[in-house]
Amino acid sequence: MKTLMSYLWMLLHQVLTCIFIKARSIMSINNGANYTLSWRFAIESNNLRSWPTVPRRCLPYIKTYMLGGQYQHDLDMVIAEMLTYMNSIILNNDGKDIWILDVDDTCISNLKYYERKNFGCDPFDRVMFKSWILEGSCPAIHSMLVFYKKLIERGFKVFLLTGRHEEQLGSITALNLLLQGYVGHERLILRSSKYKGQSAEKFKSAIRKEIEGEGYRIHGNVGDQWSDLTGESIGARTFKLPNPMYFVS
Ligand SMILES: *[C@@H]1O[C@H](CO)[C@@H](O)[C@H](O)[C@H]1NC(C)=O
């Protein structure tokens, strides 16, 4: 009798332990903070691709990330490395040493639009995004503007390359950049009708190839999307800026 009791007791103990461990592992899978850190690593490293929206459970963490300072810290670390690299380059002084910078969420910010879209948890709203762009009031990403000015000061030519459509958004984009202090770049290149419907990677690769064909040397290539930095003629070094709010292929 005694052995049976102790056997049953042991069994109960084991079952309870099992349930406890299982519950803990489910809890940890559902833990938003841990999940969001893993998710952010996966998207920023280009392991996870073509994600349509930010997972709902990440919302409070992405909001805190974007508004609470860590986004800025992450940006600043990349830009500090860009600066170190830039200072190490020996220029040829033939006007052919260039950097290529993306526009949206690299030079100027769409955070205000994304704040209204739950930091990317809501699906992309083509109409609302276009009207936001047409306001021409995307604010400069300040640390990037400072870097842009240093590039020009050191004698690099800066090419701004964006997937925005030239016909519809060309003049407002040029004006927005100017008003935010982006003055002195060599070229602003937008997506002409020739590249309509092409992926950002294909379009940007083709443009970079053309630029190299003109004899320019791409020393640095900066963007918040992997599609700014992959493909062909990507440049001597690429720099990925943080952006956990949307994915462009
Ligand atoms: C988050 O991860 C840490 C480290 O693995 C772990 O100790 C903690 O229990 C996790 N949080 C939750 C609520 O699961």
From TrEMBL:
Keywords: Glycoprotein, Signal. Residues 1-17 form the signal peptide. InterPro entries: Acid_phosphat_B-like, Acid_phosphatase_pln, APS1/VSP, HAD-like_sf, HAD_sf. It comes from the Eukaryota. One of its GO terms (molecular function) is acid phosphatase activity. Coiled coil: none annotated. Belongs to the APS1/VSP family. This is Acid phosphatase 1-like. It comes from Dioscorea cayennensis subsp. rotundata. The gene is LOC120273529.
